[in-house]
Design a protein that fits this description.
The chain is α/β, with parallel strands linked by helices. Helix content is 38%, strand content 23%. It contains 13 helices and 14 strands. The chain has an eight-stranded mixed β-sheet with strand order 2-3-1-4-8-7-5-6. Strand 12, helix 9 and strand 13 form a beta-alpha-beta unit. Helix 5 crosses helix 10 and helix 8 crosses helix 9. The two termini are 38 Å apart. The structure holds adenosine-5'-triphosphate and magnesium ion (MG).
């Protein structure tokens, strides 16, 4: 009898011609998550088994797999020989000691002498006889003992499913570039898009020395947490200090955030080209702050030449975003006080509904191309 972890993936999405591609990517991602931990991953029709691990590593393995997108459910179970005596011993071990239960059997091995109904009836009957405080309820049981008789002469026996991360395997839906700040929102936005199978690179803008080194460390820490879900990430770091000084010196201060955003988008598109990202991702949420109006988004979108900009949080309330950031483990870091470059030279009254003609008039006071080029020269890269 051997402890195994049974993994079911989100199968609905994996039908059709691409199935093999999804499955290979999924297996690669699980291997990556479990790197350095003793284990073997084996594929069985419609599921994966993790085997040959040390029992004391189970919690660690589950915590790693908890962050792998594409997993529908996980269950810790027992693998035994396809023999009714062994199956019963395993069922006895996994069956809860009280409450109502039923046995559900799936039989892939059609040569096994009993059919699935007979297996369920015999094992269930014996469990009932030999366990004091349990009773059968076939319609709404508190617990289900699952028996899966495989074709290779083994059977899997398990009882409780743990919900997996869901979604699609990262790497199956292209690559996006996340504009990551030190705040609560952008890591959540990256997590949401990664969940749909997209690989994520990050770009962060700082205005050192107006923003300090802790702000930078904080962003790197957020990216590191995100990288556990995204199968690694590369953070591109760009200094925008001179751009902000130029805006401050030459333009109407009310347009600081609007103009800076447009620079960020231009630079992000350049970085996306460099790292083959196919879209930009931001943590903007409609109406959350003064700059996140539809007019503000129109203004920042209009400098992007080719790429779509995904804003997965647009329809979310702040509370919903906070709940998600707590779930993924970025919240405690995000709430540490920090300076974002958007808060440097912040005007008392930023424009909330910037008019395009006014933005262009302000921007005309700057040498946009030279400033973008200069900022690109400050690029630093950190990999996780
Ligand atoms: P967040 O919590 O993600 O910081 P926010 O509510 O503070 O968002 P803003 O500061 O208006 O909102 O930023 C909106 C979006 O712009 C961010 O979610 C992020 O995608 C991008 N952004 C803002 N500042 C930076 C930065 N310094 N570097 C990279 N991207 C940034
Ligand atoms: Mg912010």
């Amino acid at each position: 009898m051997e402890k195994v972890i049974i993994i079911r993936y989100c199968e609905l999405h994996l039908k059709g011609k691409n199935r093999g591609f999804f499955e290979r990517q999924f297996a690669i991602n699980m291997e990556r998550a479990l790197k350095g931990i003793k284990h073997e991953i084996r594929r069985q029709s419609g599921r994966y088994l993790i085997e040959s691990f040390d029992e004391e590593d189970i919690t660690l393995i589950l915590s790693k797999l908890d962050k792998v997108f594409g997993i529908h459910t996980l269950a810790v179970g027992l693998k035994v020989k396809s023999d009714m005596g062994e199956i019963y011993s395993a069922a006895k071990q996994v069956c809860p000691k009280s409450g109502t239960f039923k046995v559900e059997t799936h039989r892939a091995d059609k040569t096994f002498p009993l059919n699935s109904m007979q297996i369920s009836a015999q094992i269930g009957g014996r469990l009932l006889d030999e366990t004091e405080n349990i009773s059968v309820d076939v319609h709404a049981p508190q617990n289900i003992v699952y028996i899966d008789v495989r074709e290779n002469g083994t059977a899997l026996v398990f009882s409780q499913f743990i919900k997996g991360a869901g979604g699609m395997p990262v790497g199956s839906a292209g690559k996006g570039l996340l504009l990551i700040s030190g705040g609560i929102d952008s890591p959540v936005a990256g997590h949401m898009i990664a969940k749909r199978g997209m690989s994520i690179d990050c770009v962060h803008f700082h205005s050192y020395p107006y923003t300090n080194m802790q702000a930078r460390e904080k962003v790197l820490e957020l990216a590191k947490i995100l990288s556990q879900y995204t199968c690694g990430t590369t953070v591109h770091i760009i200094k925008v200090t001179h751009i902000q000084e130029e805006i401050h010196k030459k333009c109407n201060g009310e347009y600081m955030v609007t103009l800076l955003r447009r620079f960020m988008m231009r630079i992000a598109e350049r970085i996306a080209q460099k790292c083959s990202a196919q879209c930009l991702i931001t943590g903007e949420s409609l109406g959350q702050v003064a700059s996140q109006t539809i007019e503000g988004m129109t203004s920042s979108n209009s400098v992007i030449e080719n790429l779509p900009v995904l804003r997965p949080l647009c329809g979310f309330d702040k509370n919903e975003i906070i709940d998600r950031s707590k779930d993924i483990g970025t919240y405690d870091i995000s709430i540490q006080p920090y300076e974002d470059c958007c808060t440097v030279f912040l005007p008392k009254h930023p424009v909330t509904k910037p008019k395009m003609a006014d933005i262009l008039a302000e921007e005309a006071k700057l040498d946009v191309n030279a400033l973008v080029e200069e900022a690109m020269g400050t690029l630093e890269v950190v990999k996780f």
